[in-house]
Amino acid sequence: MLGDIENMEKVSTELSSVKELFKELEAIISSSYDGMFIADEKGVVLRVNVAYERITGIRASEVLGKNLKDLVAAGYYDQSVTLLVIEKREIVTINQTVKNNNKILVTGNPIFDEKGDLFRVVTNVRDITELVSLQSQLLKTKEQTLKYKTELSHLRALHIGNKEIISRSPKMAQVIELATKIADVDSIVLINGESGTGKELIAKLIHKKGKGTSKPFIKINCAAIPEQLLESELFGYEGGAFTGARKEGKPGLFELAHNGTLFLDEIGDLPLLLQVKLLRAIQEKEFIRVGGTKTITFNARIIAATHRNIAKMVKEDVFREDLYYRLMVVPIYLSPLRERKEDVPLLIMHFIDKFNNRFGFNKKIIPQVIDKLVEYSWPGNVRELENIVERMMVTAPTEEITMNLVPETIMDKSFSPKRLTKLKDAVEETEKYLLSENFKEYGSWKKVAEILGIDRTTVFRKVVRYGLEKR
């Protein structure tokens, strides 16, 4: 009898200890600032604390006694760390989205009994909604900074005054008048002209008179960028869109040109696949970044330019007809320099002043040289004239630019196909002569292609055909 009483007292003492331990554990769980979520080995919810309710917005009565599989199916959670712990039998940490769209960081810990069997999963919960928001803001800030830096580099290059368009010819006067007239509207402009005629200058003039120099003027040369990179340059890309892509992504030129002007130089070299995407962007005033899903709207004036005959390209099915007519809202044609010879003396004097200022010279040009330069046909147009004037100035041994400094290609007017020559042969002789003489002048087939206004592959094909590759 005495032994039974002693055993009862011992049990009672142990029970009191357990109760005290339970109260202590209860107080710890309840007072924890982090959320606590306890489930059994089958995924049935046994306990959640007050902090869990505060963080998630889910009341204990909504989940207690329910299996997590059912709660996930009901939309309470996008996934369950408890179920992952039961499956893997190890600590698991995941980002979880709960039904009110809060983002939480949850870590599930498996609890094993003395036999090694799983009997509880205790989950620690932290609210990371604010952290996710801050990360998103940081990414947006980095993207905005990159955008501003790119805009700034473009704006620094944007310096155009009326003095930069040097002309007195009626043809150029008409172009300038038209450019000024359409500057205040956002109609698409297509500028056509040979290489070196000043297409970019006209585009900048339209921008300056309309949008103003405080707005971005963004230029891209469609012929200078590889096809596989051109789409991401135009439309930008999301982080991880392809190998080597920036983690934060990159805004495209359409975004950078927002509220300004996007100048698409050498539009005739745009690949057919991109022509489709460009047409949609122009028509809808919206696009999607490479690797993205979000539609981005933009408001920018489109000015395109080319030295190619796009109407002919349309007939040859190498340029989309619908894009051609979309670009042809306001066409502007720039005459080659040989058709406005009255501009040559003005341009010569402009370049003389320009290089005198740049190099600290005080050089002058004699009238006979100007007359000779006026006679020349200038296949490379204003750009070629500028290069020739610079060459004569830097090589002149005295302060005077005389006839002996005029390049042989300009002095030699003797070439012409012989009479009675078949047209095909005359064309070949002329092509061979122009290729050969321009290579003598510039020493680069790439430069020859630029001067003659044709692409490099055409030049190289003709060089091989006429046996000029050894030069």
TrEMBL record:
The keyword Nucleotide-binding applies. Residues 165-394 form the Sigma-54 factor interaction domain. Keywords: Aromatic hydrocarbons catabolism, ATP-binding, DNA-binding, Nucleotide-binding, Transcription, Transcription regulation. PROSITE patterns: PAC, PAS, SIGMA54_INTERACT_1, SIGMA54_INTERACT_2, SIGMA54_INTERACT_3, SIGMA54_INTERACT_4. GO terms for molecular function: ATP binding; DNA binding. One of its GO terms (biological process) is regulation of DNA-templated transcription. Residues 21-72 form the PAS domain. SUPFAM superfamilies: Homeodomain-like (SSF46689), P-loop containing nucleoside triphosphate hydrolases (SSF52540), PYP-like sensor domain (PAS domain) (SSF55785). Gene3D superfamilies: 1.10.8.60, Homeodomain-like, P-loop containing nucleotide triphosphate hydrolases, PAS domain. It comes from the Bacteria. CDD domains: AAA, PAS. PANTHER family: C4-DICARBOXYLATE TRANSPORT TRANSCRIPTIONAL REGULATORY PROTEIN DCTD, TRANSCRIPTIONAL REGULATORY PROTEIN. This is HTH-type transcriptional regulatory protein TyrR.
